[in-house]
Specification:
The chain is mainly α. About 80% of the residues lie in helices and about 0% in strands. It has a single domain (about 5-210), classed as Up-down Bundle (Four Helix Bundle (Hemerythrin (Met), subunit A)). The chain contains eight helices and no strands.
Length: about 220
């Protein structure tokens, strides 16, 4: 059956990066367009991850759970779907504010407040997904079907940003889980990603967070 440990790893990365975003925006000096553009690009990348993930769940995971779990899962899937819509709306608000802020470095507090609303929605959703959906997934979804969900995200991800995004996940990830995620990848990716991903994220974190080792979720 499905090995969902990779989802916990992804959730940890999302919690870390989203929780750091509002203060990153507030710390940009008004008028510092260069810094606003860098932080804005980072925010855009981070905000794209839940969108792709939720799209895959809507298309692949929810139908499988509803088909096999019936009434026992219908209520929680409906709640997940409602939360997806709330997150999408909060994400759209952020997306609407980002371009103007990136180009002017003005009105950062409005963007930071919108990000805080997005973070609140997302953190609540991740906790409920871990408590309810992932145990159901282990019960009802096969490993091959779970892999399809991952393949959907990979197919929609930007190839240029994929190594960085994977390094972002690896930062607090269990090496055994990283190895399992890469087990079916082509040999060049299996060899390169464990080295390239962390290096790219460390360099990115230094530029965005001011340190190669930003605060971890558990710290």
């Amino acid at each position: 059956m499905a090995d969902v440990r990779d989802m916990y790893m992804a959730h940890t990365a999302l919690r870390r990066e989203f929780r750091l975003l509002p203060q990153l925006v507030r710390d940009v000096e008004p008028g510092d367009i260069k810094r606003a553009d860098a932080v804005g690009a980072h925010a855009e990348l981070v905000c794209s991850i839940p969108h792709l993930h939720h799209e895959g769940e809507d298309l692949i995971l929810w139908p499988l759970l509803l088909e096999r779990g019936g009434e026992a899962v219908a209520s929680i899937v409906a709640t997940m779907d409602e939360q997806h819509h709330a997150i999408a709306q909060a994400n759209a608000e952020v997306a609407g504010l980002l371009p103007g802020w990136r180009s002017t470095a003005r009105d950062g507090d409005e963007l930071a407040t919108a990000l805080e609303r997005l973070v609140d929605n997302l953190v609540e959703h991740l906790a409920l997904e871990e408590a309810e959906i992932l145990p159901l997934t282990e019960k009802y979804v096969t490993a091959a079907e779970w892999q399809r969900l991952g393949e959907h995200g990979l197919a929609k991800s930007g190839k240029k940003t994929l190594p960085l995004t994977f390094g972002m996940m690896m930062y607090e990830g269990d090496p055994a889980v990283v190895k399992a995620v890469l087990a079916d990848a082509p040999l060049p990716a299996r060899l390169a990603m464990p080295v390239l991903g962390p290096r790219l994220y460390a360099s990115h974190a230094k530029r965005i967070h001011g340190t190669r080792t930003p605060p971890r979720v558990g710290s």
